Amino acid sequence: MPEGDYVVYESQEAKPVVIRLLRFSETNFGKAGLISASFDGEISSVPEKALKLEFIGDSITCGYGVEADDPLVLFSTSTENPSLAYAMKTAELLDADYSLCSWSGNGIISQWIPPEENEPKEDVPLMPVVYRYTDIAGAAFQGFSEAPLYDFDSYVPDVVIINLGTNDQSYTRFIPERVEAFGRLFGKFLQEIRELRPNALIIGCLGVMGQDLCEEEARRFDMFNDDKAFFLTFDVQKEEDGIGADYHPSPKTHTIMAQKLAEFIRAHLN
Fold first, then answer.
1. In which element (H, E) is residue 229 found?
2. What does pLDDT average to over the chain?
3. Which of 89, 194, 220, 257 has the highest local Cβ count within 10 Å?
């Protein structure tokens, strides 16, 4: 959409309405912003929820390809929709506020690489770096010489959910030294999150698009030895539940994931 004035809501009848602006595609697929807003009538903010969630993830968290109905369909922003993905669905089930820090194709030790490549891909910042910034992908576009650091006091979650490793497994490929290197970096990231989120419940989850690194992540949570940090293995997606673009989860699979994660959070938050 070009820059301009857009009517978000209008009515001849005076009544309370809730307006939510949600960008479906990721910042690296194009830029968007709200310059100003004008209203007729009284304005109030929506009350904060009692529970706050923060998700750190990749394309699965972004809702990549969720609106496609064929795994052979190539990705486009027209089939990306985070509101149909497990993260926002989990927040809805728990009546929670949410924040998403997610980037398709990204990971801990490498971005996704095809089978014929054999070196880790790091041509964009990996997620442990991305997490520390407001918008490291869009900083130059916005005129910043350096990306602004994220203010971790601006949103303080009760639960941090990490869903990373799906892209890393395209590089680790069950090679012991690669898996070990991934595990070391994952463990370091866990420690960094704990330092930044000292009171949060930390949940790691993985597995819907492959469980290659589930055992290593679970081991790193054990080594982390934190009584407020746990690991959850998602079931691998089933063909009968539908498959989205590039073999990503369907809306039904995301719903199954959300139900499992919401129950896990409830159990560990008592």
1. strand 229-233
2. 93
3. 257
The sign of the CA dihedral 121, 137, 161, 207 is negative
Output the six-digit token pair for 236: 């691998």
CA dist 123 → 106, 225, 240 (Å): 10, 33, 36
pTM: 0.93
CA distance 139 to 152: 18
DSSP state at residue 79 = G
Rounded Cα–Cα distance for residues 192 and 128 (Å): 9
Find, among 181, 173, 157, 170, the residue nearest to 56 by Cα: 157
| Residue 153, C-beta contacts closer than 8 angstroms, at least 6 positions apart | none
Tell me how far apart the alpha carbons of residues 142 and 200 are, in angstroms, rounded to a whole number. 32
Q: Which two tokens stand for residue 15?
A: 């009544």
Amino acid at the residue 243: I
pLDDT value at residue 270: 75
At residue 35, the pLDDT reads 86
Whole-number pLDDT of residue 142: 62
How far apart CA 217 and CA 203 sit, in angstroms, is 11
Provide φ and ψ at 187, rounded to 5°.
-60, -40
**Phi, psi (deg, nearest 5) at residue 214:** -60, -45
With a CB cutoff of 8 Å and minimum separation 6, the contacts of 83 are 22, 24, 63
Helix 251-269 crosses helix 86-93 at what angle (to 10 degrees)?
Answer: 50
- 27 near 133, Cβ under 8 Å? no
pLDDT at 29 over 60: yes
One-letter amino acid identity for 203? I
